[in-house]
Amino acid sequence: MADLNDPARLAELHHVLLRDDADAILDACVERATELARAPMALVSLVVRHIQLFRAHRGLPPDLGVSCATSRSSSFCQLVVRHEEPLVVEDAVRDERVPKELVERYGIRAYAGVPVRVRRHVVGSLCVIDLVPRTFEPGVIEGLHRLAAEAGARIEALESDTPPPSRTARERLARFGQTARALERALMAIAPVIAEAQRAAATLPEAPQLAPSTGDLRAAVDCYRDMFAIAAELADDAMALSRSAPAEAASELAQATRSLTRDMVEISPLVRLAESVLGGTLDEGAAARAAHVVRDAFAAHETATAAVRRIITTVERAPTGEAW
């Protein structure tokens, strides 16, 4: 049985998590999956520490299509990753293996998912979902395996598409302290809005509001987008440092920034929901219900803050001599 929090498994999902643009190959995989299984929904999920992130999807309810995530604890795909084998559910209401939150909230009744592998790790699932109880023929599962292999190869290619280093090691190290402290301040600034959204989601249906005010919500969204861009730059610099500098601190920085960027990705479903409210595509009630489904994303703010503090401490302890 696989450890869902295995650092080696999570490390396979670094650069690919930083991208939220549509990918034609992954989109084609889920499109073909819906046709193969004659099912209304399909997705490629990436199972991270707190959430499952939908990297490609077809047919999802509007709020899930916006957030592109659910809490890992409520997902079916976590079982595919944990056991590293296919999961077939013919009637989710009667199946004791699966969590019932998504069954009750979205009417999911049937599910078939197979592992998506990157190198030797199962990073997620390619699955099809139906709203009525049903069986899945063996040919459907075989076809899903083939599509999952294509999806895994594509994710591996995206993960390998790293930008070339553009700064010296000592220049990168000098940037780390400044940018990490800026991120720490930004995370502290966004904390009250995150806390308010968490309270709103926890009190459903009594208080279906995602945030206290439109102004605070817009400020929080803008703050996050700035933080995400900075965190992505830090991650690139950290990987370049770990390749070019033998110092132990370089390896520590690389691990801490990987952790940070994963946490930032796990906060992003809440941000997308906030943007949908600001843009008028979802009302506050629907967004708050979806925030309840991705409630574990709230924990990512705390772990992101801890990761930034580890980065600052590591930079302060790093040698300043020619080893860099």
From TrEMBL:
Domain named GAF: residues: 21-162
Lineage start: Bacteria, Pseudomonadati, Myxococcota, Polyangia, Polyangiales
Protein name: GAF domain protein
Gene3D superfamilies assigned to the protein according to its UniProt record, in alphabetical order: 3.30.450.40
